[in-house]
Write a structure and sequence with these properties.
298 residues; mainly alpha; Farnesyl Diphosphate Synthase; 2 domains; two-stranded antiparallel sheet; 2 strands
């Protein structure tokens, strides 16, 4: 990667340090898995996360829609610059990501997909069918799976098939996110669940004060239906573990395990999403990570 350094430019070590601080501060679920990686991969995955976080922060911020779209396009151009070997040497995230791209086979165009998904959020795109939603999920989450796989590498199996598995696991995590955040998203004017499914189960996601006004039984049926779709994708995507080295498999097992446990909590009490965001405690997350670490040492 080419750049023009200045006296103020961060070193690669400093740049990675900045990305790791972002990850520790912001990645409440992913950080449990990232900690299980050896230092080179931990630093690289932190750089991937920091860039994805940059994109998400633009989309979730308070700026006007037009300004968000401008900033997202600037990130798109930053990614295109990285692909061509050009980047701002004063930007620690770009410095770290350039080093990561030099050392690992990270598909940088995955960040462009994240930008596209975030643009859909900014524009308030709604989804008519589950296939429409899956396209969005591939942009914002399947892409992260493929980017992460570039850091993990594969020790067995076909690489293209491994990318598909990483993509599928990302879809499972994103559908889990959508179910977890259905109330919060509705309060922000966003509806991700497909209209055909809402109509099928007679659910509107209308708000009654700080809660959803839908009939609990109908909403529970809808949530369990969508959770079943996520479960199918966990069953497929988790086959990726057998294609990774032990430490990378432990990382994925921890990250996916936390979200999978969250999904099962939602399945056990689907009406809970009507009242608040469903969460796991720090202790529960740590126990999932410890079991994953045991896998990495096996």
């Amino acid at each position: 990667m080419r750049s023009t350094k200045s006296p103020e430019s961060p070193t690669v070590v400093d740049a990675y340090g900045a990305c790791e601080r972002i990850t520790r501060r912001e990645a409440r679920n992913f950080s449990y898995g990232i900690r299980l990686l050896p230092p080179p991969k931990r630093r690289a995955l932190s750089a991937v996360y920091a860039m994805a976080r940059r994109i998400d922060d633009i989309g979730d911020g308070d700026l006007p829609e037009e300004r968000k779209l401008v900033l997202l396009d600037e990130v798109r151009q930053q990614v295109r610059g990285l692909e061509a070997g050009r980047y701002d040497p004063a930007d620690p995230v770009l410095v770290a990501l350039a080093a990561t791209a030099d050392d690992f086979e990270v598909p940088l165009d995955g960040f462009v997909e994240i930008v596209e998904g975030c643009e859909a959020d900014v524009r308030g795109v709604a989804y008519s069918t589950f296939d429409d939603l899956l396209h969005y999920c591939r942009c914002v989450a399947g892409s992260v799976g493929r980017l992460s796989l570039g850091v993990f590498g594969t020790v067995r199996g076909d690489v293209a098939e491994s990318r598909q598995l990483a993509d599928t696991l990302g879809l499972a995590l994103q559908v889990t996110n959508i179910l977890r955040d259905v109330l919060e998203d509705r309060g922000n004017g966003r509806v991700y669940l497909p209209k055909e499914d809402l109509d099928r189960f007679g659910v509107t996601l209308e708000l009654d004060g700080d809660a959803l006004a839908d009939d609990p039984a109908r909403l529970a049926e809808l949530v369990r239906f969508e959770a079943g779709r996520a479960e199918e994708r966990y069953a497929t995507g988790l086959r990726l573990l057998g294609r990774l080295d032990r430490r990378s498999a432990a990382c994925v097992a921890a990250m996916a395990g936390i979200y999978h446990r969250l999904l099962r909590r939602i399945e056990a009490d689907p009406t809970a999403v009507m009242r608040a965001r469903v969460r796991l405690s720090g202790g529960e997350k740590a126990r999932v990570a410890l079991r994953a670490l045991a896998l990495g040492r096996a």
